[in-house]
Amino acid sequence: MLSQQTDGIIAVVGAEEATQADIQRLIQSAKHVQAHIAGFVLNRVSQRDTAYYHGYSDTLT
Which Gene3D superfamilies would you find in this protein's record (predicted)? Predict the structure, then answer.
């Protein structure tokens, strides 16, 4: 299993696609193969759904 050869995995989760049950299954699957979950990335978040949205740019100013 590739996850056992790494320090951890980062799960990318679609904001309006993944359900709580999906995430629970992911956590249980990771535990089953003894994989460490290093973190989650919440992807596809609508800007209008959050008052605290911060943009990212790789351009230096």
Answer: P-loop containing nucleotide triphosphate hydrolases
Question: Which residue carries 């993944």 as its tokens?
Answer: 18
Q: Residue 37, class by beta-carbon neighbours within 10 Å (0-12 exposed, 13-18 middle, 19+ buried)?
A: middle
Two tokens at 4?
A: 């056992």
pLDDT tens digits for range 7-45:
899 999 998 899 999 999 999 999 998 899 999 999 988
21 CA to centre of own chain = 14
pTM comes to 0.65
The torsion of the CA quartet 12, 15, 18, 19, rounded to 10 degrees, works out to: 130
Query: How many residues are recorded in the chain?
Result: 61
